[in-house]
Structure formats: C-alpha cells, structure tokens
Amino acid sequence: xxxxxxxxxxxxxxxxxxxxxxxxxxxxxxxxxxxxxxxxxxxxxxxxxxxxxxxxxxxxxxxxxxxxxxxxxxxxxxxxxxxxxxxxxxxxxxxxxxxxxxxxxxxxxxxxxxxxxxxxxxxxxxxxxxxxxxxxxxxxxxxxxxxxxxxxxxxxxxxxxxxxxxxxxxxxxxxxxxxxxxxxxxxxxxxxxxxxxxxxxxxxxxxxxxxxxxxxxxxxxxxxxxxxxxxxxxxxxxxxxxxxxxxxxxxxxxxxxxxxxxxxxxxxxxxxxxxxxxxxxxxxxxxxxxxxxxxxxxxxxxxxxxxxxxxxxxxxxxxxxxxxxxxxxxxxxxxxxxxxxxxxxxxxxxxxxxxxxxxxxxxxxxxxxxxxxxxxxxxxxxxxxxxxxxxxxxxxxxxxxxxxxxxxxxxxxxxxxxxxxxxxxxxxxxxxxxxxxxxxxxxxxxxxxxxxxxxxxxxxxxxxxxxxxxxxxxxxxxxxxxxxxxxxxxxxxxxxxxxxxxxxxxxxxxxxxxxxxxxxxxxxxxxxxxxxxxxxxxxxxxxxxxx
Length: 547
Prior knowledge:
The protein is α/β, with parallel strands linked by helices. The chain folds into three domains: 109 residues, no CATH class; 125 residues, Beta-Lactamase; 219 residues, P-loop containing nucleotide triphosphate hydrolases (Rossmann fold, 3-Layer(aba) Sandwich), CATH 3.40.50.300. It has 19 helices and 22 strands. A hairpin with a 3-residue loop joins strand 8 and strand 9. Helix 9 packs parallel to helix 10 and helix 10 packs across helix 11.
C-alpha cells in the first residue's frame, strides 16, 4: 500500500510528518480539500470532518495511523457530554476528534467514531439538547450546514473556534431544520431566499394559541433560558442556518471582571463620565464589542444619569438604562410608523433629554449623521462601527457621514477602541510545562503571510514562545485554556490626532497615520496581543489568527 505523507501546518505538531494510509481511499478532490483544511491549522480528524462528504473509512484509517481504537458507533448506554459520548463503566470516550477531549475525561481511553448521529434522535429533543448545551458551555453560535450528503452541526465554542459536533442524514437534517424554523414563525415552504428570524424567551408567557408548540419548547429551556437570532441562506446543497445564542442569565460585569488589563481599565475609566462626544468600539463579530459597551454604560452610572440605548437585538438587560430594540420601519394601514431603526431612535431620544446615548451600530449615513448630531449637542454617544481596526474606523465614519466639514465630525471623536478576544493560557498547565515552546526563527516566519511575518520579525524574532499544541492538561481547564481575554488598541483623540486627520482632509495613508500616532503614544491591538505572547498568557498561533 502506498503511504501518503502530509506535512501538518506549523501550529499542529510543528515540523513533524504524519504517515496516513489514506492514498487508496482519498479521491484527488478529497486530497486537495484535506490539504486546504490542514493548512487552516486543523488536526487530521477535524480536517476529515470538514470534507464535503463524511466517510467512515477515512476516520478508521486515521485512527489506525494514530494507534486509536475505532468503532462505527458508541454503545447505546453511552452518555453524550459536550459533543462526545462517554461510557463511564468502561472509562472510554467516543469521539471523531481525539485531540479535543474535555479535561475531565483526560484519564479515559479514546475510541474514534465518525461524526454521525449515533442513535435515533427525537426531533423535539434534538434542538432542546443542542441549545441547552450551547448556553451551558458558552458557545456563541450554532452552524447548521448542508453538504451534498449530510447536514453538518458545528458550533463556535467558548474559545471562539469553529468545532464540528456531528453530521446528520440529509433528509433527517432538513426535517429537523424545518421544525426548528417553524418554532420561529418561518414559513418553511420556501427556503430559497435569505431570511432572518428570532425566538424570544419572553414568549414562554405568551397567550397566543398559535405559539403553543413554541411555549412547550421554551419550557424545556427553563434551566438554560436564552433568545435566539436565526439567519438562513440558500446554498447549492440546501438551506444553511446559523443560530446566535443570547443567554438571558448573563451577569453584567465590570471591566476588571472581564479580564481587561489594569492599564486598559485605567485608560478607559474616565471616558464614560464625559458630558459629550463620541466613543466607538470596533472589531469582528464575536469580539466582545457589545460586552464592552455594556461595561462602559455601567461606568457611566445609570443611577445618576439618564441613559438610553437602541440595540439590534437587546442582548442583556442593563438596570437603569432605557433600552429600545430595533425593528425595521413598518407602517400600519393608516400610514403610522410602528417600527424603528437606529437613526429614528436617536432622533426620538433627543426629545427625552438623555445624558448618554448608546447605539448598537452605525451602519448607514442616516445613523452616522444622527449620532454625530447628538454628540454635537451635549450628549455622550457610544456605538460600534464595522471596521477592522482603529484607523479604518475613522475612514469608515467619514465615509458614512459624507459631511464636507470633516472638522465637525472629528472634533466630536473622543475615543476608538479596537478589540479582539483570544484564548487565555491556563496558568497551571503553563507552570506544569504542558505547553511546548517554539522559537520564532526564519523557518517559522517563512510560513506566514508577508504583513504578519514583518510584524513578528520586528517584535519576536529569536524569542521562544508558547505553542497551543498542548499534549495534556491539568484537568481543571478547557484543553489547556481558561476562557478568553480581550486585547485592545486604544486611540485617544488628542489635539495632535485631530489636527492630523483634519489637515489630511480624511485621505491619509494608514501607514502614515500609524507612524504619526505611535509618536504621540498610540499602540494598536497587535502590540497588546504580542505583549501577552511575551508574558506567556497567549499562544503564538492564537495571536497570529487575529492579525
């Protein structure tokens, strides 16, 4: 038998070649797709689970290559825990990915199984179990994705990583999806167009006879109450659904409790008490922007100031804050407006005489202009904007506002915070030496994109840093990590920064701005995460992923 040699990427068993007797099993298309997934940093089992067609024999071959036992299904009396099957009597865990075993089962023997539903599932219990697990484990999203032969269930776990849970027979999977969407009031006869829907936990108290099935579903979620925001898009393989999980029992926490560095807490603490101006938070979906805004609102002291917010959706109740949820502008039969958007809400807020206005997102010209007008008339405005970093946020705001008087916009700016969340290394595992160390040398740097390579070459070349390929854990953490911590870039608008932007007419080059801003004290979030790498709080792979 021919042996296929696949060199796994640098962030998985660095510089080792693994032998896999898969040549006779992989088609050319599968081999190409597998290489793509491996180069994303996935281990071989996770990569096989990402192929368009899930084939049991591929997992059997990979298991044999690594010396694991293989089984087609777990025992009937195995308990499903956190996406794996546990047989406590024999102390065995059954999973398709032996490299992602919860720490509490570290002493169990591992049996590899294909990522398929191992036993019949009652339709009504499937979504209850999935949603409950999402809330209990801190998963942000559920991704329910079609392939040519199956539906794949994936989640974004508590560390912000996409993780495959299982795959389901295509026909059964589509039936389960239709049943879930019906709970959200979606007409499932036509899923060939993009659509948005929601399930709100407050409907557990609804008296609407048409929501009886929904109430029964929500009753089963009493221990893990949450709202759900649902997005469906039509793909060539069928409707694909993402469910965003919004737990109802979220505790509002201060910056210190959220893992912010004391230096950041000190720099941010004075801004929520300002009487006017604009504070923007930027970052990708799931980077903690809304959580940071809520923490800043708590610092603004809702008990002593009038604070109002417009959100899409309202993710957590903030005591003392008047919260409004966005609804698309809708007019009744008499032409009366019965819905709101961000811009309409801001203009309505102005008549409420607030001190502080929080806006979920500045996403269009009307909202940008309304927010700038509010900050220009004695209100502190906090919001988010779609941009990659602090510098892009300036350009994005100017582009949306389309105001020829750039000074009017920039003079209202007080602060832009760019934020990312990265997995935090378990201190105990680090002390026990479970994290391997690798040197940032020429060989390591050669594998990176040019911009990232230049950054690391300047800051970390020649240093030894932690790699996330932890082989064992202390048993008290999640695969070597303890949640996520924020890394920040804080751009404070002092006179020098304002003058630079205004004098450039808003057409400055990013590199030119960064050079000037660094000279007056600005540090982007890349500096923060690399400092965390040096302090061994973050692994090098997790740092690279956010650049």
